[in-house]
Amino acid sequence: MEQIEKLEKIIGYTFKDKKLITQALSHSSYANEKKIPEGSNERLEFLGDSVLSIVVSEHLYKNLRHIAEGELTKLRASLVCEKSLHIFAKQISLGEFLLLGKGEENTGGRERPSILADAFEAVIAAIYLDGGIEPASKHILRFIPEDPVHQAKPAFNDFKTILQEIVQKNPEEKVEYSLVSEEGPDHNKRFVVEVCLNSNVIGRGKGKSKKEAEQFAAKEALELMGYEA
Predict the structure, then answer these.
(1) Which one of the listed residues 49, 82, 105, 158 is annotated catalytic?
(2) Is 147 a catalytic residue?
(3) % of the chain with per-residue pLDDT over 90
(4) Is 173 helix (H, G, I), strand (E, B) or coil?
(5) 45, 104, 118, 121: which one is catalytic?
(6) Most buried one in 63, 155, 169, 177, CB count within 10 A?
């Protein structure tokens, strides 16, 4: 229950029916091993995929009126593909909360892109069944860039990880992220984050969540270093 509450704080939604989120986090290996009556998160993943698609489609349709149907389809595909969902799942540390069987646990299941992407969709479905389309939509749109046409790239690149891997080549170097400010009303917050290398600011980012702002800060830092982000 403590883990569930921790995840609820991260995603900003409290479940009335805790069984839904527990099932959403239950991989088939765990459900089979524990013989859980409700089963794994596979059926929730199926529903979550549809909810995700309609929310993203509506968002793109309403906000990108100048974009033709063919381009909207490509853009939606880029935002709901496994690669993007894997990144989104990592932004909320979803792997930490997964319920896995012993075999899956021992072979790196918590980091496997397909497992994380499926669980991300299952969580969407759990929110939808528990609270309806409004909280599900709010949760999904946290991960969609403000300007998806020009800023969709962070969905495909985990800039924080890339920056960390570069810095780790020099053990004496240390990267830290700090929240500089929060702007806007509660329902439409904007976060500003700075990334520092040994206390020197090397990047600044702005986003709809702290995680997104950190990604943009890392992106700016990589560009400063000459990396084509």
Answers:
(1) 49
(2) no
(3) 58
(4) coil
(5) 121
(6) 155
* pLDDT band for position 149 (cuts 50, 70, 90): low
Q: Regarding beta strands 190-197 and 175-183, do their DSSP bridges make them parallel or antiparallel, or are they unpaired?
A: antiparallel
**What helix, strand, coil percent values describe the chain, rounded to 5?**
60, 10, 25
Instruction: Spell out the SS3 assignment of 53-88.
Output: HHHHHHHHHHHCCCCCHHHHHHHHHHHHCHHHHHHH
Residue 100 has pLDDT above 90, yes or no: yes
Q: How many residues does the chain have?
A: 229
Sign of the torsion formed by the C-alpha atoms of 183, 187, 188 and 192: positive
Locate 124 and state its tokens: 């969407």
**Beta-carbon neighbour count of residue 74 at 10 Å?**
11
How much is the pLDDT for 190? Answer: 87
pLDDT-derived band at 155, boundaries 50, 70, 90: very low
The reply to whether 118 belongs to the active site is no
| Distance from the first to the final alpha carbon of the chain | 39
Half-sphere exposure of 71 (CA within 13 A, CB side): 10
Contacts of 150 (CB under 8 A, 6+ apart): none
| Nearest alpha carbon to residue 99 among 89, 114, 110 | 110
Count of beta carbons in the 10 Å neighbourhood of residue 166: 15
